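Here is an idea for our session: we take a single protein and study its fold together. Once you have written the record down, we can walk along the chain together.
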Amino acid sequence: MAEPVKVAEPEPQAAGFQWMGAGKWLWPLLALCAIAFFLALHYLRPAPPNTLTIASGTPGSRLNLSALQYQKILKRSGITLKVLTTEGSLDNLDRLRSPSSGVDIALVQSGITPADEIGDLVSLGSVFYIPLTVFYRSPHPLERLSELRGHRLSIGPEGSGTRALTLALLKANGIRVGEQTELEDLDGPDARAALLSGKVEAIFLTGDSATSEVIGEMLHAAGVRLFDFQQADAYVGRFRYLSKLEIPAGGFDLGENLPPAQLSLLAPTIELVAHSNLHPALSDLLIEAATEVHGHAGLFQNPGEFPSPRASEFPVSADATRFYKSGKSFAYRYLPFWLATLFDRALVVMVPLLLVVIPIIRYIPELYNWNIRRRINRRYGQLMALERKSLGDFTAKQRKALLEQLARIEKSVIALKMPGSHATQLYALRQHMQFVRDNLAPSAKDP
């Protein structure tokens, strides 16, 4: 009796899962992941645009000059900021809300937007105060705005933020347009000249019409007083977009001690407003620029007070809230802007992708082993079918055909690329093939 064939034990290093042999499964998966990564990078987390348009204000105004400073800062990061000159804050808001204007961001005075007209606009924060100053001629100081009823007032031109704010305050004091009180639409030097000449009894000024220099000049004018909002706390409580500013004695002129005593002013803020779909990277960049431009101290603000996430009509965007709480991310602190945006986008896409890919990779060995077993079992199926045919009577020609079929099966088994961990199964299959071959051997009774 022939000795049974001894199947060699696999080498220790050959045992276990062979990654090299799993290439036909692994590489397609990696290719699929790479394709999914770049598609997600393009559609789910697109790169920020390299051009933005901001609605600023009239040429030379503080709004316009601020926008021009943002332009220089953003240019350092490769972003082109187009500065659009406008008629002022209200015009800025109208252009931002218009889909055909191409405006992405705007500098807007708080308190001029009805709640039902906010739409998809969000605030990146307030950037500076624009104090409301009321100059008037009177032999004695006024204590309430309601004392201006029946006088001629200049409240700013139509469509200006000054006019919108003044009308709201006059209405709160019971002063209505066309009821005894005459309203003029003068602003800037024209308004100041009208007050000094007696054409009007009071003027309302904000922004570039009421700079510290202008206020100091008006305080030096004979018979002109600056209104002290003694009810400032009540105004702030009613108009949430206003802030109370305390001006110390001598704040505008130490030598002449002007004003002669501490007084209170009211001030809305200028907000940096954008559409809610503004790219997060650009949101961070704009707030960073605003910090560089408006973060210094001044008569009306403390150092580091602006930009600020204080809210008015517009909700503060989620990206801006994150920036104010934690600042720039790691990538934006230490990498160039373009590289940081790429890293940030890749991180956002890779994390969920890895949550899917890692479990799949863990199952690759099992899938690969299943495929090996399937290939071996398929040969076993062929061998069993051939053996069934050998159980009946057959001629020498039929025997030869069966042996040739068996040889083909064995050749296909030898050609199989198998890892050493499956050698036992492979050689066991070849032993079983030899068993079938022995059964097919010709006997003495064959013709």
